[in-house]
């Protein structure tokens, strides 16, 4: 329990934000705008890709701003200065969008379509579908830079995009509830083995569903 947020507690974190108040709130506003831009990009792609087929590639879209407590904890863990400028420069997942797709192939179609756009720059790609994490976690993560258009200027913002299938989302949501970032003592060898087996089953489900889709030809 060394994380700054834990030491400061919710009240301490709130006090820090109050001190930073105006620039911090401004930065969060810019991230919210960036999330709106990126969400719209995915909604447009979903609309277009649904037009000629019987199904839409996107099941759900969720956006989130990292909580002040999590931002502080990550800043302390990574030795990042607690200034608004430094947080913006060094913490790349303050704004996050999660796209849950029907099939694994949809993940890559959408990621490619997003990255082809003129105002999207790929900064980092982590393909945890091709290379799952040791926990069994699978998803495609992209850190992108994209502009927001303010009344008097354009500002480039960074957004973390997580793309995954329904099956990957079920695994990640339940694992998150059970063990992710919880007491490491929970992760006994037996628990790890069960989670790993669940991850294998979820990967198998994606594979079989993909094959079924190909058979039907949609
Ligand atoms: P939350 O609570 O979901 O917001 P870092 O971002 O530096 O801490 P890393 O490894 O550089 O860690 O980033 P990575 O691998 O891209 O993963 C970041 C996010 O992916 C996490 O966000 C989770 O949402 C998700 N994630 C990664 N690994 C796992 C896992 O094993 N299980 C589950 N359920 N989710 C995972 P946050 O902000 O850490 O957490």
> What fraction of residues sit in β-strands?
15-25%
What is the arithmetic mean of pLDDT? 91
Task: Choose one word for the global shape.
Answer: flat
Tell me the radius of gyration. 19 Å
Quote the distance from N terminus to C terminus.
Answer: 50 Å
Biggest sheet details: 5 strands, mixed
Q: How are the strands of the largest sheet arranged?
A: 1-2-5-4-3
Secondary-structure-based class equals alpha+beta
Overall description:
This protein has 218 residues and is an alpha+beta fold. It has helices at residues 4-51, 68-77, 84-90, 104-115, 166-178, 189-216; strands spanning 58-65, 95-101, 121-127, 140-149, 154-165. Strand 4 and strand 5 form a beta hairpin. It starts with a helix and ends with a helix. The mean pLDDT is 91. The protein binds ligand 0O2. Ligand 0O2 binds at residues 93, 126, 133, 135, 137, 141, 172, 175-176, 180.
Give descriptors for this structure.
54% helix; 218 residues; 6 helices; five-stranded mixed beta sheet; flat; binds ligand 0O2; alpha+beta
List the helices and strands and how they pair.
Elements: H1 4-51, E1 58-65, H2 68-77, H3 84-90, E2 95-101, H4 104-115, E3 121-127, E4 140-149, E5 154-165, H5 166-178, H6 189-216
Parallel strand pairs: 2-5
Antiparallel strand pairs: 1-2, 3-4, 4-5
Helix pairs in contact: 1-2, 5-6
Bound molecules: ligand 0O2.
């Amino acid at each position: 329990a060394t994380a700054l947020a834990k030491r400061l507690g919710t009240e301490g974190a709130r006090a820090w934000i109050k001190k930073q108040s105006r620039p911090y709130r401004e930065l969060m506003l810019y991230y919210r705008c960036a999330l709106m831009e990126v969400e719209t990009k995915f909604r447009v792609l979903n609309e277009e890709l649904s037009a000629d087929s019987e199904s839409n590639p996107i099941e759900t879209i969720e956006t989130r701003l990292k909580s002040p407590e999590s931002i502080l904890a990550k800043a302390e863990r990574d030795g990042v200065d607690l200034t608004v400028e430094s947080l913006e420069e060094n913490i790349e997942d303050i704004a996050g969008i999660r796209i849950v797709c029907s099939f694994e192939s949809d993940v890559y179609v959408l990621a490619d379509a997003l990255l082809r756009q003129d105002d999207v720059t790929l900064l980092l790609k982590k393909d945890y579908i091709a290379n799952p994490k040791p926990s069994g976690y699978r998803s495609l993560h992209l850190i992108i830079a994209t502009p927001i258009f303010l009344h008097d200027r354009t500002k480039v913002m960074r957004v973390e995009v997580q793309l995954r299938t329904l099956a990957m989302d079920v695994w990640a949501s339940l694992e998150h509830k059970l063990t992710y970032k919880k007491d490491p003592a929970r992760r006994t060898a037996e628990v790890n083995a069960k989670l790993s087996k669940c991850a294998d089953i979820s990967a198998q489900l994606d594979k079989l569903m993909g094959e079924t889709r190909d058979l039907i030809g949609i």
